[in-house]
Amino acid sequence: MGIVLDSSNKGANGSSTVDKKVKVVFVLGGPGSGKGTQCAKIVEHFGYTHLSAGDLLRAEIKSGSENGTMIQNMIKEGKIVPSEVTIALLQRAIHENKNDKFLIDGFPRNEENREAFEHVTGLLPEFVLFFDCSEEEMESRLLSRNQGREDDNIDTIRKRFNVYMESSLPVIEYYKSKGKVQRIDASKPVGEVFEEVKAVFAPSDAKIAV
Ligand code: ADP
Ligand code: C5P
Ligand code: MG
């Protein structure tokens, strides 16, 4: 699939694999930090399209794809699916959507995700929204999420936390070093978290609202 980029969207290799000019915000944070919950609100208020990497992978399992069993096994173990699989799903979703601004939730999850996405799509995030939440709070949210997810059990949750600490936090640190991280205190109730989020997307509105 050809994605042609405006020069402002070109990555280090200058390649172009997205055929429109798009704006991407990465939404990162631990499992259960509230990424999906807040993305739904951002969509409503600011007109982004929400792409959750985890949701795309779960849809791929349901579609009966040849990668389905591999993805299912990785998710059950809390492991990160090879980048080429996840990136192909993200690229397709961007390509199929008319919108030009996307929230990419739960991606990049490790350095390999980050580097491969940059290389393949040439896209760099406008900024990174980082939902910072204590492990204790995230665990309690995941255990009461009740969406029938095979990975919301205590054994898999522990594995996901380890992967988050070892592989995902370094990605957030990388973007911090580039001055791209907008940190949000995600431990608070949903409405309070969204007030902080709103201030990132519409700083002037937030000032008026106070
Ligand atoms: P993530 O996408 O980061 O894994 P979710 O948005 O699915 O997280 O939220 C995990 C669970 O926690 C859901 O059941 C959701 O309703 C709940 N939740 C989300 N944000 C909050 C919050 N700020 N306070 C309390 N519960 C929350
Ligand atoms: O973000 P979410 O909690 O929905 O992700 C669920 C699982 O999907 C992760 O624990 C991981 O197994 C898989 N995943 C992945 N690569 C991503 C995002 C999610 O392998 N970039
Ligand atoms: Mg989610």
From TrEMBL:
Q: Where in the cell is it found?
A: Cytoplasm; Nucleus; Plastid
Question: Cofactor comment in the record?
Answer: Binds 1 Mg(2+) ion per monomer.
The enzyme's E.C. designation: 2.7.4.14
Q: Kindly give the InterPro entries that the UniProt entry links to this protein.
A: Adenylat/UMP-CMP_kin, Adenylat_kinase_CS, P-loop_NTPase, UMP_CMP_kinase
List the CDD domains hit by this protein, alphabetically.
ADK
EC class, as a word, reads transferase
Question: Quick one: which residues bind ATP?
Answer: 32-37, 145, 188
- Which reaction(s) does its UniProt entry say it catalyses? UMP + ATP = UDP + ADP; CMP + ATP = CDP + ADP; dCMP + ATP = dCDP + ADP
Q: Which UniProt keywords apply?
A: ATP-binding, Cytoplasm, Kinase, Nucleotide-binding, Nucleus, Pyrimidine biosynthesis, Transferase
| Residues reported in the UniProt entry to bind CMP | 113
GO molecular function ontology, one term from the record: ATP binding
Do the record's keywords include NAD?
Answer: no
What Pfam families does the record point to?
A: ADK (PF00406)
Keyword Nucleotide-binding in the entry? The reply is yes
> Cellular component GO terms, alphabetically?
nucleus; plastid
Positions that bind a ribonucleoside 5'-phosphate: 58, 79-81, 106-109, 149, 160
Q: Which residues cross the membrane?
A: none
One GO process term, biological-process aspect: 'de novo' pyrimidine nucleobase biosynthetic process
Required co-factors: Mg(2+)
Q: Known HAMAP family for this protein?
A: Adenylate_kinase_Adk (MF_00235), Adenylate_kinase_UMP_CMP_kin (MF_03172)
How does the annotation summarize its subunit structure?
Monomer.
Record's function text: Catalyzes the phosphorylation of pyrimidine nucleoside monophosphates at the expense of ATP. Plays an important role in de novo pyrimidine nucleotide biosynthesis. Has preference for UMP and CMP as phosphate acceptors.
Q: Which family does it belong to?
A: Belongs to the adenylate kinase family. UMP-CMP kinase subfamily.
Domain commentary: Consists of three domains, a large central CORE domain and two small peripheral domains, NMPbind and LID, which undergo movements during catalysis. The LID domain closes over the site of phosphoryl transfer upon ATP binding. Assembling and dissambling the active center during each catalytic cycle provides an effective means to prevent ATP hydrolysis.
Please state what the protein is called: UMP-CMP kinase
Q: What is the lineage of its organism?
A: Eukaryota, Viridiplantae, Streptophyta, Embryophyta, Tracheophyta
